């Protein structure tokens, strides 16, 4: 049996792929408006994790340029905020809702920082993995790194964000699913694939971004 994969298209409709059949998923419970707290320094983020077994953080990973930081800031404010420079180190953001507190820890995706990814993986609630849907050339690298990350953790929930769906030439959701070989990851974990995009600065986040935020919040509640 392939992995239990949930797929949400750019329009925000939630779909599931199971045995080649597309079926509607139940809508996720709405979360309240978040409050973004100041990002902590790399040292503070690292210190917060030291000595912990199973933490409460959501680890955000992906290749450099995938759009991780822009997604986090947009989720925190409900409005688009683009980040042009890649993250050089760590970026920690906390989003509070009435139902939960979501602590996101982003680690930069350049080659020099990828060695840190596995160090933090055992300490988190779930993994958010961001890919650039229009960067076809590097999807094989994104696939390899994702599979290496989770091969020894069969139950860690994974949310894959197929970002930049608004760009010309971007792979659609089913193409990203195939390119990352998500069916090969296993059927014991909760795995989700959502198409996202970050529009113009200052605009309200798209419905797909809202779907992603609500899904992550629901997973945090279920995992804690």
TrEMBL record:
UniProt-listed Pfam families: Arf (PF00025)
PROSITE patterns: ARF
Binding-site positions, GTP: 62-69, 109, 163-166
Keywords: GTP-binding, Magnesium, Metal-binding, Nucleotide-binding
Keyword Magnesium: yes
InterPro entries: Arf-like_GTPase, P-loop_NTPase, Small_GTP-bd, Small_GTPase_ARF/SAR
An annotated Gene Ontology molecular function: GTP binding
Binding site for Mg(2+): 69, 87
Family according to the record: Belongs to the small GTPase superfamily. Arf family.
The protein, known as: ADP ribosylation factor like GTPase 9
């Amino acid at each position: 049996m392939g992995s239990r994969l949930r797929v949400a298209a750019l329009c925000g409709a939630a779909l599931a792929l199971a045995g080649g059949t597309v079926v509607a998923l139940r809508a996720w419970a709405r979360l309240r408006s978040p409050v973004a707290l100041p990002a902590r320094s790399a040292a503070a983020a690292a210190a917060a994790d030291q000595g912990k077994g199973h933490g409460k953080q959501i680890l955000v990973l992906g290749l450099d340029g995938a759009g991780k930081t822009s997604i986090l800031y947009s989720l925190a404010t409900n409005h688009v905020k683009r980040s042009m420079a890649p993250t050089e180190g760590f970026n920690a953001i906390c989003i509070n809702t009435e139902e939960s507190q979501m602590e996101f820890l982003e680690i930069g995706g350049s080659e020099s920082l990828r060695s840190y990814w596995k160090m933090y993986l055992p300490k988190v609630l779930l993994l958010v993995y961001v890919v650039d849907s229009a960067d076809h050339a590097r999807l094989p690298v994104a696939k390899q790194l994702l599979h290496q990350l989770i091969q020894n953790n069969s139950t860690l929930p994974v949310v894959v964000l197929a970002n930049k769906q608004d760009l010309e030439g971007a792979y659609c959701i089913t193409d990203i699913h195939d390119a990352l070989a998500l069916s090969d990851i296993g059927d014991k974990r909760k795995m989700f694939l959502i198409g996202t995009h970050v529009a113009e600065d200052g605009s309200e986040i798209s419905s797909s971004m809202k779907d992603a935020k609500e899904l992550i919040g629901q997973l945090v509640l279920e995992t804690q």
